[in-house]
Specification:
Distance between the termini of chain C: 46 Å
CATH superfamily of chain B: Thiamin diphosphate (ThDP)-binding fold, Pyr/PP domains
Order of helices and strands of chain C: EHEHEHEHEHEHEHEEHEEHEEHEHEH
Helix content of chain B: 25-40%
CATH class of chain B: Alpha Beta
Number of helices of chain B: 9
Largest sheet of chain C: 7 strands, mixed
CATH class of the largest domain in chain C: Alpha Beta
Chains: A alpha/beta (about 180), B alpha/beta (about 250), C alpha/beta (about 350)
Strand order of the largest sheet of chain B: 2-1-3-4-6-5-7
Strand order of the largest sheet of chain C: 3-2-4-5-7-6-13
CATH topology of the largest domain in chain C: Rossmann fold
Largest interface: B-C, 40 and 39 residues
Shape of chain B: globular
Strand content of chain C: 15-25%
Structural class of chain B: alpha/beta
Radius of gyration of chain C: 21 Å
Oligomer: heterotrimer
Largest sheet of chain B: 7 strands, mixed
Distance between the termini of chain B: 37 Å
Number of helices of chain C: 12
Chain lengths: ~180, ~250, ~350
C-alpha cells in the first residue's frame, strides 16, 4: 500500500510548488488519492517556498505534513528546517549543485543530485526539479514514469509540448541516482 | 371638469411623515414627477438610505431597496450590475453620504457606476436630532457643536460636489437649491438630466440639493429658507460642477 | 465516474458558484481566500457575469445585498478580518431575508492575527456575528470535493430559505489542492422570487426590500417569522458524518480540516486497541445536537474529545448536546498551527487510561 508524503522546499522561483503539483498530478493519473498544500502569504514574499504532497491508496487525512517520508531540498535553509522532521528511514534528496552541506541524520537515506548542473546541460533550469522528481519516482514507486509523462501532456500547454522529451530525459537522469 | 393638477404616479398615496417646512417632500415629488414624465417608474429601482428618509420606499411607487447607513451607492452598484437595463437611484442625506458613506460614494463615482445619486444637504443630522454633519457650517450650532462648529476641534465642511467632480467616472454633478419656484424648476431639470445621463450609460451622476431643516435649525420655515440662501450658498455655491456642456 | 482534476479549494469554490448559476461576485482581496477572487475576475467575463473589486468588504457585502435584492444568485468571499467587516451587511441581509452565499476562509485572530489556518470564527459564524436575533446557515466542508458539492448546495439553501448560507473553511481547505470530480450538469433548485426588486414592468404593486420595522409589534412579528424559519431549518437541514461509532469508547468531535487529521488518528488508535469514533458536523448551524445526544447515550462511549483550531468554540455546542452525560475533553491549536496526529493520539491515550 502506498501512503506517503513529500515536502519540497527551496527558494521562490525554483519551481518547488509546480514540481509538487506534477508529483500529485502523476499519482492522480494512477487513481491514487493526492493532496497538495503550499506555504502561502508573506512567507512566499520572503523568498522561501515549500509544499506538502501526500500520495495514498486511502482517503487522505491531513494535507499538512508533520513527518514527511521524503524531503526534497533545493537550498540549505530548507534542509536545515525540515531535516529533523523526516521519518526514520525516510529519504532526503538535495540539489547538490546548490546545497553544499549533508544532513546530520544517519537513520535516513541521503541522495545528493547535481540537478541544477544537469538541468543547465539540458538547456533550462526548469528541469532541475524534474530530475529530483525522477529520483523520487524510482526510489519510492509513488508514481511511474508513464503517469508522469501523461501528466506532462495534461498540465503543459500545447506550445510547451516540445519540452516533454527533455522533461523525460531529466526525469530518467534523476531516476538513475535512486539506483545507486 | 378639466384636471389641472394631480399627484404624480411616481408617488404612492401614503402621506409623508416629514416635519413642516422640510424639503424632502419637494425633492421626492420632483424625482417622482421626472420618473413619470420620462415614463420610467416601471423600470426604476430606488435605494433608500438611513436618515429622515429611511422609509421613502413607502413613498416612491417604483421598486425600492432600503440600504444600511452610508451603503446606498454600494447597494445601487449591486442592483445596477444585475439589472443594467433598469434605472437605479440612491437618495441620501449628508450624514449618510458625506460621513459614514464617503468611501462608498467616492468609489461608486470613481467606477463611473451608471446610477443617479440624489444628495440632500441640510447641514445637520435630522433624524437623530440635530447633531453636527460633515456639511455643518463653521460657527453653526448643533447638539454636538453647542458652541458652534469650530475648525480647530471639529474640522471644516465638506464640499461633496466639488470633491466628486474631480473624478473621471463622475460625468454629471450639479448643486441646486429649492428656496423659490425658479430654483425648484432648475432642480427638476437637474434630476431629469441625471436620469438621462444614466439612460445613455454615460457614468455616474449626482444632484446635490441644498435643503432646510427648520426643526433642528430651530427656525421657522421661511426663516430657514432665508438662512439657506444667506449662509449655505456662500459655502456651497450653486451650479454645474461636471458635465456643463453635456448634451443629453 | 467523471474525471478527477487537481484543483485548489479556493478555485473550486468559485467554479462551484458558477456551476450553481451564480453570475455576480463582489469582493475585496485578503489572504488566504484571494484565489476565489482571481478565478472570478477571470471567469465571470466568459460567463457574461459581474465581477466587482469593491473598495472594502463593507461595500462588497452591500453590493451583495443589492444584487440579491434583484433575485440574482450572488457570492462574496473573504477571510476572518474581512468577514468581521461584512457583519453589518450580513445582519441586514438576514433582516431583509435575502439569499446570498458568503465564504469565510478563516485565518488566525483576533485583530489582524495571522494568515494561517484557524477555526476561530465559529462563534461569529454560528451565533450571529452581527447584531440582532438571526442565524446563518453554516456549512463546513472537509475536502475539496465536498467544498464543490456543498458550495453548489449553499446556493439552493440560500434561495430556499432566503438567508445567508456561509461556507466556513479554514486556510488549509482554501489553499490545498485535491482531486475534484465535477458533474456534467448541476441539479440546482429553481426558486421563484416574486419579492425581488427587478423594476415593476407591469407588476401592480411595487416591491420593497427592507429590514426596518419601526413599530415594535411589527418587528416582533418579523422576528417570530424568522425564528419559525430557523426552527424549520433545525428540523430539516442538519448534516453530519458519523464514523466508527460501533463500540466506540471515545468519540471525537471535529469539523473541517481537524476532522481529516482525526481520521488518521482513529486508525492509529485502533492499532493501539482503542476504539475511537467521530461525529463530524457538516452544518455547524444547524448543529447536529441530536446526534451528539444519541451518541452520549451509547453505553460504550466513555467520553468525547473535541478537536479544533481554536481555544474551544464548537465545544460549547457539543457540551450542550451531551448535556453532562459524558465528559467532553478538548484539544486545540491556535495561531495557524495545526494539531499533529501524535498530539491528538496522546490525548486519546490519556483519556483511555483515565488520566484526564
Amino acid at each position: 500500500m502506498i501512503d506517503f508524503s513529500i515536502i519540497l522546499a527551496g527558494f521562490g522561483g525554483q519551481g518547488v510548488l509546480s514540481a509538487g503539483k506534477m508529483a500529485a498530478e502523476s499519482a492522480l493519473i494512477e487513481g491514487k488519492e493526492v493532496s497538495w498544500f503550499p506555504s502561502y502569504g508573506p512567507e512566499m514574499r520572503g523568498g522561501t517556498a515549500n509544499c506538502s504532497v501526500v500520495i495514498s491508496d486511502e482517503p487522505i487525512g491531513s494535507p499538512v505534513i508533520n513527518e514527511p517520508d521524503v524531503l526534497i531540498a533545493l537550498n540549505q535553509p530548507s534542509l536545515e528546517k525540515f531535516e529533523d522532521t523526516l521519518k526514520p528511514g525516510g529519504i532526503i534528496i538535495i540539489d547538490s549543485s546548490l546545497v553544499k552541506v549533508s544532513p546530520k541524520r544517519t537513520d535516513i537515506r541521503f541522495i545528493p543530485i547535481n540537478s541544477s548542473e544537469i538541468a543547465s546541460e539540458l538547456g533550462s533550469m526548469a528541469y532541475a526539479t524534474i530530475v529530483l522528481l525522477g529520483c523520487v519516482s524510482a526510489a519510492t514507486g509513488a508514481f511511474t514514469r508513464d503517469s508522469f509523462e501523461k501528466a506532462l501532456y495534461d498540465v503543459l500547454p500545447e506550445r510547451r509540448h516540445h519540452m516533454i522529451p527533455n522533461n523525460l530525459n531529466a526525469f530518467d537522469k534523476g531516476a538513475e541516482f535512486a539506483k545507486q | 371638469m378639466a384636471v389641472v393638477f394631480q399627484k404624480t404616479k411616481g408617488l404612492t398615496d401614503k402621506p409623508f411623515h416629514y416635519c413642516p417646512g422640510c424639503m424632502h417632500g419637494i425633492i421626492h415629488r420632483l424625482i417622482a414627477e421626472v420618473m413619470e414624465e420620462m415614463d420610467i417608474i416601471d423600470k426604476t429601482i430606488g435605494v433608500a438610505s438611513v436618515g429622515c428618509t429611511y422609509n421613502n420606499y413607502d413613498y416612491f411607487s417604483c421598486d425600492m431597496v432600503q440600504a444600511a447607513h452610508g451603503r446606498a451607492p454600494a447597494v445601487a452598484t449591486g442592483i445596477k450590475r444585475c439589472k443594467p437595463e433598469e434605472m437605479v437611484f440612491t437618495y441620501q442625506g449628508d450624514g449618510d453620504l458625506a460621513s459614514i458613506g464617503t468611501a462608498e460614494i467616492v468609489h461608486a463615482a470613481a467606477r463611473g457606476e451608471k446610477i443617479c445619486t440624489f444628495f440632500v444637504n441640510n447641514a445637520v443630522y435630522g433624524m437623530t436630532s440635530g447633531q453636527m454633519a460633515p456639511t455643518t457650517l463653521l460657527g453653526q450650532v448643533t447638539t454636538t457643536s453647542p458652541l458652534g462648529r469650530d475648525a480647530e476641534t471639529r474640522g471644516y465642511p465638506i464640499n461633496v460636489s466639488e470633491m466628486l467632480s474631480t473624478l473621471t467616472g463622475a460625468v454629471y454633478i450639479e448643486r441646486v437649491a429649492l428656496f423659490d419656484y425658479k430654483h425648484i424648476q432648475e432642480a427638476k431639470k437637474a434630476i431629469a438630466k441625471a436620469f438621462r445621463v444614466q439612460q445613455q450609460g454615460l457614468g455616474f451622476a449626482m444632484v446635490e440639493f441644498l435643503s432646510t431643516c427648520p426643526t433642528n435649525w430651530g427656525k421657522e420655515p421661511i426663516e430657514a429658507l432665508e438662512w439657506c440662501k444667506e449662509k449655505m450658498v456662500p459655502q456651497y455655491p450653486l451650479g454645474v460642477f461636471k458635465g456643463k456642456d453635456l448634451e443629453v | 465516474m467523471a474525471k478527477r482534476v487537481l484543483m485548489k479549494g479556493n478555485e473550486v469554490i468559485a467554479e462551484a458558484a458558477i456551476r450553481a448559476g451564480c453570475r455576480h461576485y463582489f469582493g475585496y482581496p485578503i489572504t488566504p481566500q484571494t484565489e476565489v477572487m482571481h478565478y472570478m475576475a477571470r471567469e465571470m467575463v466568459k460567463h457574461g457575469g459581474t465581477f466587482v473589486q469593491a473598495e472594502s468588504e463593507v461595500a462588497a457585502i452591500n453590493m451583495v445585498y443589492g444584487a440579491a435584492a434583484t433575485g440574482e444568485r450572488v457570492l462574496t468571499s473573504s477571510s476572518s478580518p474581512g468577514i468581521s467587516l461584512k457583519q453589518e451587511g450580513i445582519s441586514y441581509i438576514a433582516g431583509a431575508e435575502l439569499p446570498a452565499v458568503v465564504v469565510n476562509i478563516m485565518r488566525g485572530g483576533p485583530g489582524l492575527g495571522g494568515i494561517l489556518p484557524s477555526q476561530g470564527d465559529y462563534f461569529q459564524a454560528t451565533k450571529g456575528g452581527g447584531h440582532g436575533d438571526y442565524r446563518n446557515l453554516v456549512i463546513a466542508p472537509a475536502s475539496v470535493q465536498e467544498l464543490y458539492e456543498l458550495t453548489v448546495k449553499a446556493f439552493d439553501l440560500a434561495d430556499q430559505y432566503r438567508m445567508v448560507c456561509m461556507i466556513l473553511g479554514d486556510g488549509t481547505i482554501g489553499q490545498m489542492m485535491e482531486p475534484v470530480a465535477f458533474k456534467e450538469q448541476e441539479e440546482t433548485v429553481e426558486v421563484a422570487k416574486p419579492w425581488a426588486t427587478t423594476g415593476m414592468h407591469g407588476r401592480q404593486k411595487h416591491n420593497t426590500i427592507t429590514s426596518i420595522y419601526i413599530d415594535p409589534d411589527d418587528l416582533e412579528a418579523k422576528n417570530r417569522e424568522l425564528q419559525e424559519k430557523y426552527r424549520q431549518i433545525e428540523e430539516k437541514e442538519v448534516r453530519f458524518e458519523s464514523s466508527n461509532l460501533d463500540d466506540a469508547e471515545i468519540v471525537i468531535a471535529a469539523y473541517g480540516t481537524c476532522s481529516r487529521i482525526c481520521k488518521n488518528v482513529i486508525r492509529q488508535a485502533a492499532e493501539l486497541g482503542i476504539k475511537v469514533g467521530m461525529v463530524r458536523p457538516i452544518t455547524l448551524w444547524p448543529f447536529p445536537s441530536k446526534e451528539f445526544a444519541r451518541v452520549a447515550d451509547m453505553p460504550s462511549v466513555k467520553g468525547f474529545l473535541d478537536v479544533e483550531l481554536s481555544s474551544g468554540q464548537m465545544i460549547e455546542d457539543v457540551r450542550l448536546a451531551v448535556n453532562g452525560k459524558k465528559p467532553v475533553y478538548f484539544h486545540g491549536r491556535m495561531g495557524g498551527n495545526l494539531p499533529t496526529q501524535k498530539e491528538i493520539l496522546d490525548e486519546i491515550v490519556k483519556i483511555h487510561k483515565g488520566e484526564m
